[in-house]
Amino acid sequence: MSIGRLPLHGVHESLGAEFIERGGSLVPESYGDPGGEYESARNRAGISDLSDRGKLRLSGKDHLKFLQGMLTNDVMKLGEGEGMYAAILTVKGRMLSDMRVYREKESVLLDLEPGLNVKVGEILKRYRLSYKANIDDLTESIGLLHVHGPLARRLLAEATGAEKLPLDEFGHMRAAIDGRDVTIVKISRTGGEGYDIYALSDALSDIWKVLMEKGGARGILPVGRAALDTLRIEAGIPIYGADMDEETIPIE
User: 3-state SS of the chain?
Assistant: First the structure.
């Protein structure tokens, strides 16, 4: 099985990134100074590339009704621009995957741990039956950057020019960075302020450049997985594959 590369692999390489394989892709473990990256994220902000995360979009007449019967949370109550945490279980109630569910205008986006897009996509297609629901894997076509830390909101407000950003966890909105369309989601992946930025993979380079230029003026650094994992563990945030697996019952 070949190991994938992130759309910004060359950019990370030019920044001196040291890579590690996660979920079938090479991702930046650090940029040579994980301690400095941790300090930046803890005291100012950090910018991380999470494009290897799985992304599935469901659409069609019955997509909400279908998901309502497949997931552990009440997706039917979501309004446009809202989101929630959910899981998909075995018939014995054990976890096959967890996910974040984002309600869009005419579709739902599922955010998954790296590599789980294939597994979850296959499960959903197997049980779709007569439901009129389209299931599209956007993992490669849509990239994902994460801005986190005390200055994350200020940095993102400057980059987008938006007067308001989502306030509620999993709340999301459309915006633009350097003329590139993005979806911004408020999500804490490290225990503090955090935002995911979804954009077409071929737009990531321009978006990354803007964030780094505006962040660099404040001493904000790119942050690799070593520092990101430390922050996550300190905050007590579990992830599927490391802290949960198919033997886990959600209540645990």
Answer: CCCEECCCHHHHHHCCCEEEEECCEEEEEECCCHHHHHHHHHHCCEEEECCCCEEEEEECCCHHHHHHHHECCCHHHCCCCCEEEEEEECCCCCEEEEEEEEECCCEEEEEECCCHHHHHHHHHHHHHCCCCCEEEECCCCEEEEEEECCCHHHHHHHHHCCCCCCCCCCCEEEEEECCEEEEEEECCCCCCCEEEEEEEHHHHHHHHHHHHHHHHCCCCEECCHHHHHHHHHHCCCCCECCCECCCCCCCC
